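Take a minute with the sequence and fold tokens given here and flag any structure token that looks odd. Thanks in advance.
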Amino acid sequence: LCTDEYVYRLVPRAQIAGLSFEALDRRPVVSTIVDRAGGIRTIRPSTETVLSLKPDLVVMYAGTNPRLHANLKKLGIAVLDVPWATTLAQVRSVTTMLGDKLGAPDKARALLADMDQKIAAARAAAPRPPVGTILYEPNGYASMGGITDELMALSGLRNVAPPGMLTRTGTLPVEAVIATAPELLILGGEARVGSSRAYAVLHHPALAALKGRTTMEFAILTPLLCPGPWSLDAAKTFGDLGRKARALAHAAGRN
């Protein structure tokens, strides 16, 4: 999926032989190009399927699908391995590299220019002091570190998820969320109840204990699933929620 995001934006549509099935999947939507890439063939990553498309180049994330990697290289199919980005600086590096490798340096520069504009806009509108925030995701994962933390910070949010209270699987118990009582709790997913078991924790009745202390908002944060220039779209969401939380806190006399 994450190389789909880049290939769609950098390669002319007529030259894209295929994308992974996640690019157009709507159960659930995990792609930022789901509404734009219709008509392009999508596949599941098997050696036979890839070979049937007779590609000149296969773009994949380094370290993924090791058997497919090995088979393609053995068969002489060119593979471009893309490193994973965990910082905005690495996003710049990966975008520039792919622009050069895919013959689209101008498109890569345009993506980065748009990214820089969104960074500047997020910083200019960020609430100060930062809004203490927990980003709580399906199954109870609390987002910590990486690009998400960078985007939260430049948007005027301070991640207050307590690392010492994470479980061995990286989840944050509901009790820890309530004890922290952040100024803003972003529930990363769908507001509707019962869409899947993973979302059940986001509707836990115990979270009602935060009423009057915490602003709780659901938000779909698809741009964060794959690191890239498009991830900056989440910064506006963060900023908007941060400003809303701060305004409500002032109105309620909490700040």
In short: Helices lie at 2-10, 47-52, 66-74, 88-101, 105-125, 146-154, 174-180, 233-251. Residues 105-125 form the longest helix (21 residues).
